[in-house]
Amino acid sequence: MAIFDPKQVVVLLDGKEISDWSDGSDVINATNQVDAGQLIIGANGTGVFIANPDKSGKLTLKIKQHSADNAYLNKLFNQQKNSIKTFMPFTLAIRDLINDDVVTATKGYFTTPTPYTRGNGHNAQTWTIVFEQMTINLEQGVQ
């Protein structure tokens, strides 16, 4: 039987730990932005695989509504929005301390602004950051 503990996953943006997750099974989502390539089949039925050199990735984080992590990310989002010239792009490091999965990324920028939503319940803030290069290394994990 494999084991996993979400409290043993560390997310660092520029070395600052982000950890005040909302509820759900997808509060941390790192993915490559494009397919690794495309298979093209010619009129004679033979094919050629065209590798895609794009190594970009996208990170989506879901944070509790009134979290200090939200305030931190909002401050950085506003800095990027108001002065892109002085904004320092993000570096990312995610590590599953039990299973040794690792995600690293460089040159990250916010894309989709998180909305201001309030009502009769909790509203997670969803942050989206894209990276010029992202590497995802998955391990077998502890058995």
Automatic annotation (TrEMBL):
Pfam families according to UniProt: Phage_Tube_PhiTE
Domain of life: Bacteria
InterPro entries with a match to the protein in the record: Phage_KPP10_Orf10
Protein name according to UniProt: DUF3277 domain-containing protein
Organism of this sequence: Rodentibacter mrazii
Lineage, opening ranks: Bacteria, Pseudomonadati, Pseudomonadota, Gammaproteobacteria, Pasteurellales
